[in-house]
Amino acid sequence: MTSGYDAVPDEDRELLLRYLEAVVAARPAPVHTVVAFNAVYFGYDLGGDGYGASPLRLDDFPVITFGESAPALPVGSMVCVATGSDPLYAEIVYKEGAHPEVGALGDVPPWVSGAPAGAEGPNSPGSDPAPLRRELLVPDPHAFGPALSLSPAQLHRMRTRRRWINGDGHVVVDVCYPSREASRCDDLTAYADHLLTTARAQLLSPYVPVSLAELVDSTDADYLRAGLLGLLDAVRGVLNSCDMLRTWGHYAMTRASLADCWNDTGPLGGDDLRSLVAAVEHAATPAKRRYGLTAPVTVYTAVGPRLRGFPGAAELLKGVGYAAAVCRANVTLADVVQRDSDQGLFENGTRVSLDDAFEGGGVWRSHHPGDAEPPGDPLASAGCGWMSTTTAPPVPDPEPEAEVEPVDLPLADDATLGPSELLRLDGNDIVWQLPLRLAHLIDGRLPLHPQAVRELRDAHGRRPMIRLELDHPGGTLEAPEAVQDVTAELGDEEGWLTGVVWPGDLFPGLMLELCLPRGGTVIRMTTTRLDEHVQVGDRVIGHCFDPCVLTREDVPGSDRNGDTAVGLGPRKLVMRTVRRCGLLTLDGHALLDRSGLPYAAYGRLPARAQTVALESAVAELLAERLLEPALGSRDVWGQPHFPARDGERAIPLIGYRPARRRVIRPWGGTEPGGEGLHAIQFVPGHLRRLLPGYSPSEAQRAAFREYCRRLGKADGWDLPEGYTFVTAHTRGG
């Protein structure tokens, strides 16, 4: 699951699906993707104890204070709300913008809808590099079970005093973001950043069922981030695939709860939701006049405050009930827009669309006449309100530049990449090794070592038939691939085997060892298995390989069917160019002068739009840690160097580092090329609850302290009460 939803076997998806269905059904608020992740990772008990049954360290939770400035806390954060007496431990299950300009009945000034964090007014985005934004956080004070929850009387007193939470049981804070970029992060990225920084001790705690560091076999930040984003993607994919659930953005709720709401005739039930839909649909419809035309009208409505205007709704909007009501209302609006309109355009001439998915629980835009606007996705947060207030004069579109195709530059180090190496030469055999190259796979041939060329030519002439026997342990071989009759084409010093049929799971960079017995016409070719599988980029590798060849030739646009950059999108083109054209180190690390990227990709300066697309792709790849920034230098002849040299002008570089991490095989998995199901299971180290009256042995206490040290805590931790530690091991075999 650390590799994402697509990598999860169907049977494991089904198990995760059943658990998450039960979590969504058990929790009173819609379950955000990151809250669902928390349930899986930290161990949410469905029997009523919540996280109280999980040995989380409450001291690791950040503290927030009502009405004050606070660091950004994404949905999913486990927090301690500062109070005058007993602390309030809670999980943030929902949040939205709480801009002070939003009216009590949901009327929104146009500039607020879609405004960036820190905006001060129409066309005034603010200049503070660390912007503030007022947010409403909905904590679930019962997420940790009855033992760690305040009593109803205590919560009532806190709501009444409104010193630590407001009258609805929510926390309103002015959130200070470290940068403008951070304020624009999506929910999953923001939560991953939170867990890797503020809540790092909680994420890497040895008290969770299995620590992320154990899952990715590293405490390196890049590996942790990649594994965490993979887990979040797996959870999101399972939630989206469930027929029993509906989602609004990242929030999941059961279809049964929605049906019950629509059939309810009480406050915030079906009648009120239909009234809300009608109000939004007709908000901009002008009053009929006998003479003249009416001016265009645009109205922005925030769902959260608008719900408070319905009679009897106040009590239902307290606590986590507010999150449930807002999500149900948005789902209802979205369903009606998709069912009864043409891309948001209703029969009355009004166009309805979602303009801001965050502020006020969701700001919906009603515009009349709607047919004067170009159609688009009505559920994409367009931010038209903010954009309509900018006063910058329109700039005429320049004549479009002619776009150019990327070029397929030859490898500058092709001749020296992956050389053939003689391993043994004696009276019996000639043994050499070389990495498999992309050209070998495309052309169906393989170069021979000069010693083998001379041996075959002297004994059998210049075009002998050779029997090629391939041994690929752990791989998949068809009979025609395991033993082949091929032709040797021999020159004075160079020679090739031609007509080779390469198995499907062989890749550029795979190390091959070849043995030619003296005087014979049989060549035995073998691959060597690694002790443990590793993952390099998207490829899981179980055999020895040459990292330099892998970096250069196992790139986007290259496979055994061809090698071209034509048709690649900006992200893949950037990755291909860096790997093919960057300075190459012995470990396969490639670094490219960032300013030279457009020319390297296209062979000449491309159109401005293509350059901008490349820069945008670079920014995305750097943010996702698929590329990394570096600093080099350029000499007087224009040649870049890394590391930077003294006395030379410094230049920014972008680098590709082939991250290699251990791959944990799934339990009961099949080994490629093996015979059926292998009963070998890898079990990472984990905690196990003990039966009452039992205690862990001293050996397990010591093993747990060593486990903690590997996770980064030098002095180790003691086992929590009621648990023992099971060391990592394999089962079966």
Give the CA-based shape: globular
Largest sheet: 8 strands, mixed
Task: Return the structural class.
Answer: alpha+beta
Helix fraction, binned, reads 25-40%
SS element count, helices: 21
Distance between the termini: 24 Å
Mean pLDDT: 86
Q: In percent, how much strand structure appears in the residues?
A: 15-25%
Instruction: Please state how the strands of the largest beta sheet are arranged side by side.
Output: 13-14-19-20-16-17-18-15
> Radius of gyration from the CA trace?
31 Å
Give the beta-strand count: 34
Q: List segments where confidence is low: pLDDT < 50 over at least 5 consecutive residues.
A: 666-680
Q: Can you give a write-up of this model?
A:
This protein has 733 residues and is an alpha+beta fold. 28% of the residues lie in helices and 23% in strands. It is built from 21 helices and 34 strands. Mean pLDDT is 86; it is low at 666-680.
Compact description:
28% of the residues lie in helices and 23% in strands.
What descriptors fit this protein?
six-stranded mixed sheet; single chain; 28% helix; globular; alpha+beta; 21 helices
SSE blueprint:
Layout: H1 10-26, E1 31-32, H2 33-42, E2 63-64, E3 69-71, E4 78-81, E5 88-97, E6 132-140, H3 152-161, E7 171-176, H4 180-183, H5 187-196, H6 200-203, H7 212-216, H8 221-241, E8 245-248, E9 251-254, H9 255-263, H10 270-282, E10 297-302, H11 303-307, H12 321-340, E11 351-356, E12 363-368, H13 384-388, E13 421-425, E14 429-435, H14 438-443, E15 445-447, H15 450-460, E16 465-471, H16 479-482, E17 483-490, E18 495-498, E19 511-517, E20 522-526, E21 529-536, E22 539-543, H17 547-553, E23 558-559, E24 562-563, H18 570-581, E25 583-584, E26 590-593, H19 597-602, H20 608-623, E27 628-634, E28 640-641, E29 649-656, E30 660-662, E31 681-683, E32 686-689, H21 698-710, E33 723-726, E34 729-731
Helix pairs in contact: 1-8, 2-8, 5-8, 10-12, 18-20
